[in-house]
Amino acid sequence: MLKIAFSPVYAHSLPQTHRFPMLKYELLPEQLIYEGTATKENFFEPIPISEKKIVRVHTSEYWNKLKTLSLTKKEIRKTGFPLSQKLVDREIIIAGGTIQNSEFALQYGASMNIAGGTHHAFTEHGEGFCLLNDIALASYHLIDEHNINKILIIDLDVHQGNGTAEIFQNEKRVFTFSMHGEKNYPHKKENSDLDIELKDGTDDKTYLKVLKETLPKLIQEQKPQFIFFQAGVDVLATDKLGRLGMTLQGCRERDKFVFQESKKNNIPICVSMGGGYSPKISDLVEAHANTYRLVRDIYF
């Protein structure tokens, strides 16, 4: 059964000044239900992550600053959002959703979160609209609770997964793969286990060629027991924060290939939404909806 994490807090906890690009959190579930890709029974409201799990990844000092809303002005500016209790609660629920999704993926083969992919959250600070790193938190959940000893993180957001790379820099049980824009944010990149940097304007043909040459070899070499997929759609040429040149069809082919490789190798996969900032909201919803349609068609 397809299980999709969704909570109204995903959108409603965001400041009004940031609401437009985040309308996707409200519109996507409606679109999936309207077209029949999902039913209401496919959705579940996540349980907030525990403090114990948060400090498994993030430092106690950083977590205490978050829960007491005592980040400095400089630290707040780096996150990109005004700090509030609602915002912290949102991140806790998003991370809880990805952890529950990881459990459902073990059970059903694939599971999805209409949020998450907060890959710019580091061990001791947040940045780039990310406060807690949901994929890192869920990875350690699987390591601790299910004795998973090899996880592959496939991060195909247009921005490097710098926080994820930092968190797992000395963790051999997690392999971080980030394929991103060379000249895009963050300007100072961290070292993932594998980084592939793409030139501005990279088109579908070039992007897919690189991915198809890389991912099968990576799976064969690493032999992961579980995959986390950061499926950002800010790779689109229409994305105002992107700089790449992909079409909706190219982005769909990207996701299809990832899912086919995961399915073929019998590896459970957990999908976090990631970024997407196309000014035309219908383009944005369509790009994200394609990811869910593919999981339904390939796995269910």
CATH class placement: Alpha Beta
Identify the CATH architecture. Answer: 3-Layer(aba) Sandwich
- Overall strand count: 8
Low-confidence stretches: none
> Main beta sheet, described?
8 strands, parallel
Question: CATH superfamily assignment?
Answer: Histone deacetylase domain
Keywords: Hydrolase
InterPro entries: HDAC_classIV (IPR044150), HDACs (IPR000286), His_deacetylse_dom (IPR023801), His_deacetylse_dom_sf (IPR037138), Ureohydrolase_dom_sf (IPR023696)
Protein name: Deacetylase, histone deacetylase/acetoin utilization protein
Pfam families: Hist_deacetyl
Structure description:
With 300 residues, this protein is of the alpha/beta class. The chain has a single domain (4-299), classed as Histone deacetylase domain (Arginase, Chain A). It is built from eleven helices and eight strands. The protein has an eight-stranded parallel beta sheet, sandwiched between helices. Helix 2 crosses helix 11 (281-299). It is globular, with a radius of gyration of 17 Å. The N and C termini lie close together (7 Å). The mean pLDDT is 95.
